[in-house]
Amino acid sequence: MRKHKYILGPTYDEMARPELIDSAIRSKAEAALHEDELNPVNLFNIHWKDSSGAVRHMVFPHELTGLDVNVVVLLGNGFPSGSHKVGPAYSMLAEACVDGKVHPDTHTILGPSTGNFGIGTAYVSALMGFKSLVIMPDTMSKERYERIRRYGGGLDLTPGTESDVILTLQRTLELMKDPSNYALAQFESFSNYRFHRHVTGPAAVEAASGVGNGRIACFVSAPGSAGTLAAGDHIKSVFPDSHVIAVEPYECSTLSTGGRGQHRVEGIGDKMCILIHNVLTTDFIIAVHDDHAVQLLKVMRDGTHVLEELGMAPEAARAVRDQFGVSGLFNVIAAVRMARWLRLGPDENVVTVATDGFDRYQSVVDDLDRRSLETTPNVMHRWISDAFANCDGRLVFDCRRAPAKQRLFAQKEADWVPLGWSIERLDALKHQDTWEAEYAKVGHYNEAIRALRG
């Protein structure tokens, strides 16, 4: 029986600049995005741009934030599979193919995740010809499980919640004892870092170029797998005075206070300092209450009339119903609060990311409805006010000085030595040269993917 070959999609450069993709392939990909979701040509839709070549983004409504600062939000729900997490998943699997580590006939692809990366793993595995198994906590939204199964992925559920991702990593290590399993280890794979630095970073700069003063005052992202924060390394290369801000749940403030607890923001807050989190370039950490994001999601989804009362045009109020998930609004809340705390003024831009859209969160809103005594317009008005209130300075932590960096490095050591990383390898991450060397591999993988693709 003839062995089948994996299917390769775009290079890093093509994901950053899809105009480099052959026009015939790009036309087929754009048609397949809405008509044939599991067609492998959708790999060429893994980028931030729409059919016109513009970065998918919006300026979050000033009527809601009460600020004249622009909060520019990259919209991840336009990616195939509905989340930008498909980008790192593809990058990791493509690099593994290039390096000769995997083959469809012999390997099952493992995706340790709390949701969107697992969906991305199942999706790109299906398109590239691999079987997949997603390892994730057993209390995530049912929509996540359903989508993974829809893409043909299996599920291996571990006990606990979003904050118990360490159990998924331990389970993955156990499964990797079988040589037929290969893990896309998003929390420690520099493929994840390379994707966001090379693809998301330039998209952020381009999105901000036509807004306000065209510059980025700060970039805000929750470190789930910490990949998205790598965009900040590119942003700082363009705007050296820009700040990079990591946001985490107040209920699980591991980076800022060492706290470890349960929370409701799927995709972030994992009780650890992620290995590929470049703490050298992180300037501040801000903690945000999880329910503020869930409540704001309810308003955006079911409170169109409330948004109109605050001054949004009816069409604009309807348009945002599907644009956000919980983690995206969590990022927006942090961006608004940091803009206040940094005293940013008119025409300045804060950039953040909405990882996904509403399509995987109806059960989260249903849970909020069960927990809430009422969700009247007055309550929704209060929820908006609470979300975008003045920032409590006690929840902002300055990470620019050596003691803060040293504490984060110590946390990273405590988290990753038990998972097999040596002190020597972790010490190397204390030097920016290590990160630059990892990023420089983009050039090699560009050429290798192009050559293997034929």
Mean pLDDT: 91
Tell me the fraction of residues in β-strands, as a range.
5-15%
The CATH topology of one domain is: Rossmann fold
For this structure, what is the CATH class of one domain? Alpha Beta
CATH architecture field of one domain: 3-Layer(aba) Sandwich
Distance from N terminus to C terminus (CA atoms, Å) equals 23 Å
The number of helical segments is 19
Query: Structural class, please?
Result: alpha/beta
Number of strand segments:
11
Q: What radius of gyration results from the CA coordinates?
A: 21 Å
Helix content: 40-55%
Poorly predicted regions: none
The H/E string reads: HHEHEHEHEHEHEHEHEHEHHHHEHHEHHH
Bulk shape: globular
Placed side by side, the strands forming the largest sheet appear as 1-2-10-7-8-9-11
- Major sheet size, sense and barrel closure: 7 strands, mixed
What does this structure look like?
The protein has 454 residues and is α/β, with parallel strands linked by helices. The chain has a domain of 232 residues: 3-Layer(aba) Sandwich (Rossmann fold), CATH 3.40.50. The protein is 45% helix and 12% strand. Strand 7, helix 9 and strand 8 form a beta-alpha-beta unit. The mean pLDDT is 91.
